[in-house]
Amino acid sequence: MQYQMSERHACRLMGLGRSTHRYRARKAERDSELRTRLKELAARRMRFGYRRLTAMLLREGMPANHKRVYRLYREEGLAMRIRQRRRIRWNGVVTSPAATRPNERWSMDFVSDCVSTGKVIRMLTLVDDCTRECPAIEVDTSLGGLRVRRVLDRVASERGLPEAIVLDNGPEFRGRALAAWSVERGVRLEFIQPGKPVQNAYVESFNGRLRDECLNANWFTSLSDARRKIETWRQDYNQQRPHSSLDYVPPAEFAKAKAELRA
């Protein structure tokens, strides 16, 4: 040795354990299976972050914690750049308390996109504020008030009517057709303040996920192609996609647990 000193004596002087000095990392072998599965999931779920991927790995029974997944996620360069939005300060008040049971309150809004021919398509999105389920996404080139009524009646026949619906001040929502439906069905319409989309936060958040994970990730060749792909994504959102606000449980599973508690 250069300093004519034993390993034992050198470690004692430095306050370092001999086992620590001799340790050689074996992470590559231990992480190979997890790394492979993480890359497979990230390839199919390109817009998922490491926390949502961790939830999916745990649901598959793989031994993984978020720190380990984050390390592999960074090493493999799976993180996607996120455009930072300018934060807007709002000092308004919340008009309604959070929903605590299914069908207590729904939220509704419109989203626009286009197909490969340039034709604009519109989507009516509907979200249950409690379970975060999306009962329907209606896709067409035009969606008027009467069409909105039919969609609501179809969803209500499957899961019952809500007590209230939160919506913005668009002409389709402010028209006579929806107002008459509200009176006939006894459903309260809660219109947000103009220019305050934060008051309709549940469906706005859902629309952001729809845009990021479905509309921006797919190329629609026709209206029927758009309907098929969007419906496939909606089913996956409800049944498989871990939801961060529900402790990384899919909305349908959360709704089932809620129903069992109320039973």
User: What topology, given as strand order, has the largest sheet?
Assistant: 3-2-1-4-5
Shape: elongated
String of helices and strands: HHHHHEEEHEHHEHHH
Helical residue percent band = 40-55%
> Percent of residues in beta strands?
5-15%
User: CA-to-CA gap between the ends?
Assistant: 75 Å
As residue ranges, the low-confidence spans are none
Mean pLDDT: 88
Note the total helix count: 11
Q: What is the count of β-strands? A: 5
How would a crystallographer describe the biggest sheet? Answer: 5 strands, mixed
Secondary-structure-derived class: alpha/beta
Rg estimate, integer Å:
25 Å
Write the topology of this structure.
Blueprint (H helix, E strand, L loop, with lengths): L6 H8 L3 H5 L4 H18 L5 H10 L6 H10 L29 E10 L5 E9 L7 E5 L4 H15 L4 E4 L3 H4 L1 H10 L2 E4 L9 H15 L7 H17 L11 H12 L1
Parallel strand pairs: 1-4, 4-5
Antiparallel strand pairs: 1-2, 2-3
Helix pairs in contact: 4-5, 6-8, 9-10
Written account of the structure:
With 263 residues, the chain is an alpha/beta fold. The protein has helices at 7-14, 18-22, 27-44, 50-59, 66-75, 145-159, 171-174, 176-185, 201-215, 223-239, 251-262; strands at residues 105-114, 120-128, 136-140, 164-167, 188-191. Strand 2 (120-128) and strand 3 (136-140) form a beta hairpin. The chain has eleven helices and five strands, in the order αααααβββαβααβααα.
Quick structural overview:
The chain is of the alpha/beta class and 263 residues long. The protein has eleven helices and five strands, in the order H-H-H-H-H-E-E-E-H-E-H-H-E-H-H-H.
